[in-house]
């Protein structure tokens, strides 16, 4: 095994998505030799980053594809609201401030931006969209990494890490030992580990295991092996294992990698009912990009983990149409039959909702004054009666994007053991996003965390490797 030491790399990066690539690129730019290990085969490289579309970023003046300004305080307030205060303000503000300087660096590595698409125009102030989406971003970063001399190995899942007093020594891929002076872990959460999801969500009062009915919106390779190994090794953790980016998606979605195209975006334009044809939450609480990520959890708490988004003809053209057409009928009874829910109960629910609607000036671009009165749960904005055929319904189930349980970090992205930072082991992306996201989500913030902390981790890993090399020669 001495042979492995002869080729000790400066910085080992474990993972192959956005955060890992940002870390690898920054470490390489700082002069470190870098080896990146991606668990997936080349064709599936990039993890969940391939499914992303944009980056939420702070800016104090209009910039190319970003309109107006999105100052630090507003970004922080948006994050505070969706997380309900379950966030580390120091680390969140660090990510927010760092996000303002990312895009020039991203462009240098081949990432291009485009104006936001119609249907996402309200995001043009806060989110910069990638030309060609996340797949193009991942490909650009891999091209740049290869050009800079980062060594990349695919189909190389790390199953354990060798530590000595909180310091990284080596990673093991099967029975191959790979030593490095410093390491960045960015290997994703545990969303594709069904057993761990079952354990996290438990059983409900009906004896169901809700996690059995979840689709995984992203990669099948994020099994949380490294996360579990670090927890077992005594690393300090943050977050609740049942919290995740969990969206209500089309119930016909595939088990893995359905990505963005399985989203159903008309929730705020109609009502959502469960299998018993009952409404269970305020569909008009806030704008869809701020609230879409609470609906997966809401649906997960319903019987059978299923819900139905119901709209009428007035909603047409006001949302991004789903990839698969929904059920459609000219009467409420016929729609209920198609969806397999009780006709009488469904008609009662819709009529009660229609009667409670107080229609003012409908405007889906602002929190308008169309609301319900005397109805529980209320619909606080965009409440229009469902009375104009054809009526449409989409079956919904929870879709997990990524889990929030992660490793506790500081401003250097260092992994901590009993409150002490490791001298040479760092973490970025989903494996530490829970420091910033205790619960909830707002569009594009996962990429903000991955990009900013990936770059921070890469810079500090390169510095730690330099220090390690100096000590070795001393």
UniProtKB/TrEMBL annotation:
Swiss-Prot/TrEMBL keywords: FAD, Flavoprotein, Oxidoreductase
Name of the molecule in the record: FAD-dependent tricarballylate dehydrogenase TcuA
Listed cofactors: FAD
NADP keyword on record: no
GO molecular function, one term: oxidoreductase activity
Ranges where the FAD-dependent oxidoreductase 2 FAD-binding domain occurs: 10-436
Gene3D superfamilies: FAD/NAD(P)-binding domain, Succinate dehydrogenase/fumarate reductase flavoprotein, catalytic domain
InterPro entries, per database record: CobZ, FAD-dep_OxRdtase_2_FAD-bd, FAD-oxidoreductase_2, FAD/NAD-bd_sf, Succ_DH/fumarate_Rdtase_cat_sf
Highest rank taxon of the organism: Bacteria
Leader peptide range in chain numbering: none
